[in-house]
Write a structure and sequence with these properties.
This protein has about 120 residues and is of the alpha+beta class. The protein has 2 domains: about 60 residues, Ubiquitin Ligase Nedd4, Chain: W (Single Sheet); about 35 residues, Helicase, Ruva Protein, domain 3. The chain contains 4 helices and 6 strands. The strands form 2 sheets. A 3-stranded antiparallel sheet has the order 1-4-5. Strands 2-3-6 form a 3-stranded antiparallel sheet, with no helix packed on it. The radius of gyration is 24 Å and the shape is elongated.
């Protein structure tokens, strides 16, 4: 974290130095699970330790642990509004619309084209 201060520094002195610089650090207790979600996948940590550092009005979270599952693919969630829009545009039934939206990865224009043509 601080160059040259990693080895041989008394932890008590380190805390004192951090306090003088306006940096506070704490750990979130009893963390059961941490999930990192991206657009198309999730990374799950079940043995995570989470530290919180506050400095100069900024809060930073540090995650330490081993992913339980390397990566799992997120299921596509199709909003009801999208289904209603495609039904209105194409006149197709709900099951056909959901199938088209799933096959097109949620792309409205592509689903409408599939059902119209």
């Amino acid at each position: 974290m601080f160059p040259g201060l990693g080895k041989g520094v008394n932890p008590r002195k380190m805390k004192q130095m951090m306090k003088q610089m306006g940096i506070s650090m704490s750990e979130i207790e009893d963390v059961e699970e941490v999930i990192i979600r991206t657009a198309d996948s999730e990374i799950v940590f079940t043995d995570a330790a989470v530290a919180v550092m506050e400095a100069q009005g900024t809060t930073t979270y540090q995650l330490t642990g081993t992913p339980h599952e390397r990566e799992r693919v997120r299921e596509l969630v199709i909003p009801a509004e999208d289904v209603a829009l495609v039904i209105t545009q194409t006149g197709a039934d709900e099951d056909a619309v959901r199938t088209a939206l799933t096959e097109s990865g949620g792309d409205l224009a592509d689903a409408i084209m599939k059902l119209s043509g």
